[in-house]
Design goal:
By secondary structure, this protein is an alpha/beta fold. It is about 40% helix and about 15% strand. It is built from eleven helices and twelve strands. The protein has helices spanning about 20-35, 55-65, 85-95, 110-115, 125-140, 175-185, 200-215, 235-255, 285, 295-310, 330-340, and strands at about 1-5, 40, 70-75, 75-80, 100-105, 145-150, 155, 170-175, 190, 225-230, 295, 315-320. The strands form two sheets. The protein has an eight-stranded parallel barrel with strand order 1-2-3-5-8-9-10-12, surrounded by eight helices. A two-stranded antiparallel ribbon has the order 6-7. The longest helix is centred in the last third of the chain and has 22 residues, at about 235-255. It is globular, with a radius of gyration of 19 Å. About 45% of the residues are buried. The mean pLDDT is about 95.
């Protein structure tokens, strides 16, 4: 069982203190590396007032320089918004810089202003994504290739340098049945969202593996489950310090419409707690069970075991800190405690 950390790069309300935040995040990544984490992931979004990270591979290069062992992941990079050759080259350079530690988590992204910024629309975005994945794999082979697709046409292309890995793993970020089937069909790993319950994770892991097997990719599956998490010996810290930050984060997605039935991501049969329509109902006792992994080291270990049994995941990655907190100091204590009292149970 491997463990990762998804870092937060938001500084509300207007990103006034980004240099300080970047220093803090780099220190958190360095500590995670030192206490036994296997993976550090960074996100991607654009034009967000609080400075949400727009350049994930650049930031991973900084983490690579401060760490020795952790894998460097994106969760997730908006692949259709980038030219695949640019991604192939930058990942290859990063893989060489890090001595073979890159895992590329990619997704479609359906936020219209961000798509327009990249000069694309939702039209054909899944086909564009598929073409990008195929081009990445061809590019990383080191062999000369051509590609004649609907969105990309390439003639006699060779990408250098070759990555250290042959090839770097690709994970598809998926939080709908359509996306899960796509990940299995393409033979990529699956990296989950942190919002849905363990019942949904279990159902989707089966759907993903079934799709992979159907398309001859049974031997290429990898499940990375993302969860919001916190570990502390103080129960009040979980409810009074950590939970309010998670509640704000979840309510953002709830009010964005992610949990609406027409979003394609919402299943009240598997996740009835999400049927609530009122923000006042978004309480710890209603939302935390079967969704959040928080508590004492013993409680966190037990929850991780449940997820491993339910999903067969090879990796669980945790988002400890969010835009509104907890503090950097508290997050450092959480990372250290996780490394000292949770990770050793699974080694």
């Amino acid at each position: 069982m491997k463990f990762g950390m998804l870092v937060n790069t938001q500084n509300p309300p207007a990103g006034e203190n980004m240099p300080r935040l970047y220093d803090e995040v780099l220190a958190e990544a360095e500590l995670a590396d030192a206490v036994g984490f296997d993976l550090v992931c960074v996100p991607e979004h654009h034009m967000v007032p609080d400075g949400y990270l727009p350049a994930p591979l650049l930031f991973l290069a900084a983490i690579a320089a401060r760490t020795k062992n952790v894998r460097l992941g994106t969760s997730v990079m908006h692949l259709p918004e980038w030219h695949p050759i640019r991604v192939a080259e930058e990942v290859a350079v990063l893989d060489n810089l890090s001595k073979g530690r890159v895992s590329l988590g990619v997704g479609l992204n359906l936020v219209e202003p961000e798509l327009h910024l990249a000069g694309i629309t939702r039209h054909g975005i899944a086909k564009r994504f598929n073409e990008c994945v195929e081009i990445l794999r061809k590019a990383w082979s080191g062999e000369k290739f051509s590609f004649d697709g609907e969105f990309y046409q390439l003639n006699d292309v060779t990408i250098t340098p070759r990555p250290v890995q042959d090839p770097p793993p690709i994970w598809t970020g998926a939080m709908s049945e359509v996306a899960l089937k796509r990940a299995g069909r393409l033979g990529t790993g699956w990296i989950s969202d942190p919002l849905h319950s363990i019942a949904v994770m279990e159902s989707w892991a089966k759907l993903y593996r079934d799709s992979a097997a159907e398309h001859g990719n049974a031997g290429r599956t990898e499940v990375v489950v993302i969860r919001d998490g916190w570990v502390s010996h103080d129960p009040s810290e979980v409810r009074e310090i950590w939970w309010p930050t998670i509640r704000n984060y979840h309510l953002f997605y709830k009010n964005l419409g992610v949990f609406n039935s027409d979003s394609g991501r919402f299943n009240t049969a598997l996740d009835p707690a999400l049927a609530t329509r009122s923000d006042d109902e978004w309480t710890f006792d209603r939302i935390a069970p079967d969704r959040l992994v928080a508590g004492s080291p013993e409680q966190v270990i037990a929850e991780i075991e449940r997820y491993r049994e339910a999903t067969g995941c090879e990796t669980m990655a945790f988002a400890f800190r969010h835009a509104t907190g907890p503090t950097h100091e508290a997050t450092m204590r959480c990372i250290e405690l996780f490394g000292k009292e949770v990770i050793p149970h699974f080694r």
